[in-house]
Specification:
The chain is of the alpha+beta class. It has one domain. It has seven helices and eight strands. It has a four-stranded antiparallel beta sheet with strand order 1-2-3-6. A four-stranded antiparallel beta sheet has the order 4-5-8-7. Helix 4 packs across helix 7. The longest helix is centred in the last third of the chain and has 17 residues. It is globular and about 50 Å long.
Length: 208
């Protein structure tokens, strides 16, 4: 039998260009992920190599500054874009908060902080924070706005629905569906914690 032809492997670098600028963490091209949302006025791109998500244009120094705002130069608490919640939620992922421009993964953080001669010393799943984020992600799938419940509890920033009647429905849906959403979120986030795909991760850094 003749040998089957192999499909050539195309490197990510082949996609680089004006429409696919380099990832600020690892340098690989950024590709389109989400169209502009009501609470984010630019498209969201993602890196297929390290997983970093970016709203609009990006550059390493700014990404590092936003990372430091999530903690300090010795560590950070991130909403994990590599989580099961993010994969299931897509545009409804609770980590897509208004005003946030960078959506980190553990691997993206590793590559970013290497620019200032640091490494990730420890990575720990934050179960309660992760469960809350996954619960809100489930609720976002049935509401007009974004992150209504967590914002009402003082735990995040909401992207409110445009109309008052929609916001009223969001409030009612968040109350009525709170327990069903929690029952779905619990096994999802538990699996995420077990397989290192939890929705919220705490990181500690150290110098090389």
């Amino acid at each position: 039998m003749p040998n089957a032809q192999r499909t050539p492997v195309v490197p990510l670098e082949a996609g680089a260009g004006p429409e696919n600028p380099p990832c600020p963490a690892c340098g690989e091209p950024l590709f389109g992920w989400l169209s502009p949302q009501a609470w984010m006025h630019a498209p969201v791109s993602r890196c297929e190599s390290c997983g970093l998500g970016v709203v609009g244009a990006a550059e390493p120094a700014e990404a590092l500054r936003e990372l430091d705002r999530l903690g300090d130069t010795s560590g950070a608490r991130i909403a994990n874009r590599a989580s099961y919640a993010a994969a299931l939620g897509s545009a409804g992922w609770a980590g897509l908060e208004p005003g946030v421009r960078y959506f980190f993964t553990v691997e993206a953080v590793r590559r970013l902080i290497a620019r200032r001669d640091q490494v990730v010393k420890k990575s720990r799943w934050a179960p309660l924070g992760g469960l809350g984020a996954t619960w809100q992600t489930m609720l976002n799938s049935v509401t007009f706005g974004h992150n209504f419940a967590l914002a009402a509890l003082g735990r995040g920033q909401a992207g409110p629905a445009k109309h008052r009647w929609q916001r009223r429905i969001d409030a009612l849906a968040s109350i009525v569906l709170a327990i069903p959403a929690l029952l779905i979120a619990l096994p999802v986030e538990l699996a995420g914690g077990i397989f290192r795909r939890g929705a919220v991760v705490t990181l500690r850094f150290e110098l090389l």
